[in-house]
Amino acid sequence: MYHAKLIGQKEKKYYNDFVAAAAKGHILQSYEWGEIKGKGEWQPLRLLLEDSAGNPQAAISILQRKIPVLGKNIFYAPRGPVGDIHDEVLMDSLFAEVKKLAQKRQAIFLKLDPDIPSTDMVFRNYLQKRGFISAEKGEGFSGVQPKYVFRLDITPDEETLFANLHHKTRYNIRLAQKRGVEVRDDCGKDELPEFYRILKETTERDKFLVRSYDYFADLWDYLMPAGYLKLFMAYYQEKAIAGTLAFVFGDKAWYIYGASSNEHRNVMPNYLLQWEMIRWAQKSDCVMYDFRGVPGNLSEDNPLYGLYRFKKGFNGEYTEFVGEYDLVFSPFYYKLWTNLEPIYQKNIRRLIGLKNRVKPAGN
Fold first, then answer.
1. For a Cys staple, 203 with which of 158, 210, 214, 337, CB 3.0–4.6 Å?
2. What are the structural domain ranges in the chain?
3. Of 50, 46, 70, 39, nearest in space to 60 by CA
4. Neighbouring residues of 64: CB distance < 8 A, sequence distance ≥ 6
5. Closest CA to 284 of 243, 244, 228, 225
6. Concatenated DSSP letters for 56-80?
7. Which segment, 43-47, 70-74, 141-145, is predicted with the most confidence on average?
8. CB 136 within 8 A of CB 324
9. Which residue(s) pair with 258 in the sheet?
10. pLDDT tens figures, 193-220
11. To 10 degrees, the CA torsion angle through 72, 215, 37, 66?
C-alpha cells in the first residue's frame, strides 16, 4: 500500500513541505535539523512513506548514533513521527520500515518523544500495543525534550491576545515600553556573538550549562537561510541587555533560547521580548506559539517555579506530552545500554562543563 524512500538533499524541499504542513509537523523533524545534528555525533536519516499515487503520507527524521563500547547504534526521532498518528495501518507501515532500517544499521532501539499531548489515550494505547516501552526518567527537563510546555493559541487578534495576558504581565510589558526598551527583530549574524555573551552571563547567574558558540552559529547557518530562525535583541540606552532565539516552521513558532544581562533587569526586557515574538509569530501566519520547557513539579519551592510563573503570565495552555518511548529491536543490547547510559550521560555533561567553563576575571 505504501512505498518507503530515504530522502536526500535533492528532495529536501519536498520533504520539508510535507512535514511543515502536517498537523504535528515539528522543526526538529525538518531536514535542516538533521543537518545540524549531523555535524556532531549523529547521522540523520529521513524516511518518507508515499501512497500508490506518489503522495507523501508519513515521515520520520531519525538521528543515528554509535554507542561507545557496544559498537551498535541507537535511533532517535525528536518529536517524530509525522503523519496521521491515529491511522494504525499507516503507523504500522512506517515503523515496519524503521525496523528494516534498524536491522541494516545495527540499531538496538528507536526512541520517540512525540509532539502528542498525554491526554491522547488512543495514541498512547497504540504505542503500548505495538511494544513501545515507556522510557521516562523524571519530571520536566529530565528527558531529551521537555515533557511540559506552555502553548499559546495565537489565532485571536492582537488586542484580544494582549487583553488575555495576566495583569502583571501586561503591566511589565508597558513598563518596558515606557522605560524605553527597544526590541529589534532585524538582527544579523553580527549580533549573534552579543546574544551569546549575554547567554553566558545568564547561565553563570542561573547555574546551568550552555552549548558552545559554534552550535549557535550552526543554527544560524542552517536555519536562517531557510527562514526558520529569528534573533530578537532588546536594547536599553543603546546597550544590548537581553535576547531570544525563535524557531518557525509551517504555522508554528517556538521560543528556544533566552538571555538576559545582570544589568537593567528592572526595565523588564524579557516581557517585552516575549510579546514582540508573539506578535511576530502571528504576523508570520502562525497559529501556535510554544514557550518550551517548564517544570512538572509546580510547587512554589521548586527553583524553576519562577520560570513557570513567567510563562504562565502569557496565558498559554499548560501542556504535558506523552513522554519518551523506546521501540526495542535487540533486547540484550538494550539492557546493556540502559545500564551504560547514566555513566555516558554523566561524562558528557562533565565534558560540556569543562569546555564551557569561563576563566575568572584577570586570568
1. 210
2. 3-112+330-355, 155-286
3. 46
4. 42, 43, 44, 45, 73, 74, 75, 105, 107
5. 228
6. EEEEEEEEEEEPTTT--EEEEETT-
7. 43-47
8. yes
9. 244
10. 999 999 999 989 988 788 999 999 999 9
11. 0
CATH number for the region 155-286 comes to 3.40.630.30
Show Cβ contacts of residue 225 under 8 Å, excluding neighbours closer than 6 positions.
none
Q: What is the pTM of this model?
A: 0.91
Pick the CATH number of 3-112+330-355 from 3.20.20.140, 3.40.630.30, 3.30.1700.10, 3.40.50.300: 3.40.630.30
Q: Which three cell numbers stand for residue 131?
A: 511494544
Distance separating alpha carbons of residues 132 and 329, to the nearest angstrom: 10
pLDDT per residue as tens digits for the range 150-186: 999 999 999 999 999 999 999 999 999 999 999 999 9
> What's the Cα-to-Cα distance from 180 to each of 103, 152, 161, 245, 265, rounded to whole Å?
59, 27, 22, 22, 13
- Take residue 291 and report the three cell numbers written for it: 514557550
Cell numbers at residue 108, please? 538496538
CA 125 to the chain's CA centroid:
25
Mean of the pLDDT values across residues 117-142? Answer: 86
Tell me whether domains 3-112+330-355 and 155-286 share a fold: yes
Quick one: which of 212, 217, 222 has its CA closest to 36?
A: 222
CA separation, residue 28 to residues 20, 228, 281 (Å): 11, 11, 18
**Sequence-ordered alpha helix ranges (H) in the chain:** 12-21, 31-37, 88-105, 121-129, 158-163, 167-179, 192-206, 213-223, 269-283, 305-312, 331-355
